[in-house]
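Worked Example 4.2. Consider the chain below.
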Amino acid sequence: MIMTQKHSMTQILLAVLATGVMIFCGMVIETSMNIVFPTLMAEFNISTSTVQWMTTSYLLVVSIIVPISAYLKERFKTKSLFIFAIVFFIIGVSIDAFAEKFALLIVGRIIQGIGTGVALPLMFNIIIDEVPTEKLGIMMAVGTLVTAIGPALGPTLGGIISDVLNWHYIFIFLLPILLVALVLGFFTIPQSRPLNKRSFDFIGFAFIPLLFGGFILALNQISTNGIASWQFVTSLLVGLIGLLGFLHRSKHQTQPLLNLSIFKNQQFSAHVVSFLLIQMTLLGLGFLLPNFSQIVLNKSATIAALQLLSGAIIGAIFTLLSGKILDEFGANKPIKLGTIIIFLALCLFLFSTSHLSNATIIIFYAIFMLGVGTALANIMTNGITLLPSTYKADGNATFNVTQQFAGAVGTTVCSTIVALFQSGTPSSDIYTVTTRLGTKAGFSVLAVLTGLSCLIMWLTLNRSNK
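Applying the procedure from the previous section yields the following structure tokens:
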């Protein structure tokens, strides 16, 4: 049995870096692919609702794997999990680097999702297990910062690479970085907790892909076959069966894959819901803006990417600063301020859709990411601290699966809304006009979501201070 011991902050930082690099690469691919969606649509002759599966399939698989992270943490060594995860990710990236068919691209993304689903909770579990409470906020922010750099660089890299070379090189350039992370993690990943050879709930796990897959497919069917179609109804029923089955199984297992009793803590539940709504908006905007720029404003992939760069950098910087603020002053101020800024930014997008330009997109997105950087990581950190130490791994898994599933839902919802409005051929004026209308409808939905997130956190934090 492995005995508990503390490790140096240097080793912890390097371990976080090793696990974070893989997640960073996943975010780079995810955000850079959003930029080259129009290129992929033209090259493979596919629709908007089809191309979004490049992102949705990846996030869906991550969502399926992350709920078992608490089990994996108890059952297997952290270093073994990391090696498994990064090898799978490297295989998936290698497939996509040389794929010539869209179906093969999806296969590569699914394999990458398996790797990320295992690795994503590892980084935060290392921080939660190893870092003293008084430094937890800043270290959680560092972990979030590692992943936040991906969205900062991804769109720009995707745009430049696809314009100068081609989109295959997005994957090719990441391979040596992943190999370095593999070596770094092999020598630094710590193991502080003893292992527990508990049994795996295969029946409970079988409900997870039904749950997430069913609901995502149902959303996707709205634009392709309509809400009255048998495909939509069937997918929705599959999702409901998965949800009810997983809830029933978790309730009657002594050691469930994910301990859902943590949701009895109403304040924790409120943090999760708010986190979900913001994450949906983050990924939804990541789909709407690049497509709007290229289709409506007729900009290149590089210009569409550069529009998001300054905002992503601001978000990354304020993620780190807000963690320091949380450690010194608590979660109340950064979360409240951040959620207000996010809502105001979506209102700016919504009421200016008809007049959006390069300059306004850059400014509005920078404001949005200022809010995200101030609030998002602190919502996760504060939510996890509301739980007893025995449930923190379940809390971490909950936030991570929420992050990935929300991203998949946000991308699918926004692509579905745009696809419902679009008509005409891609080069026609009517296609441009209807894409603008669909984008405005997408902004409307995201504004409602961010307004709800803001309201939930203000009510929750005010209640906790009484």
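The longest helix spans residues 9-44. The chain has two domains: 9-200+257-464, 201-256. Compare this with Example 4.1 before moving on.
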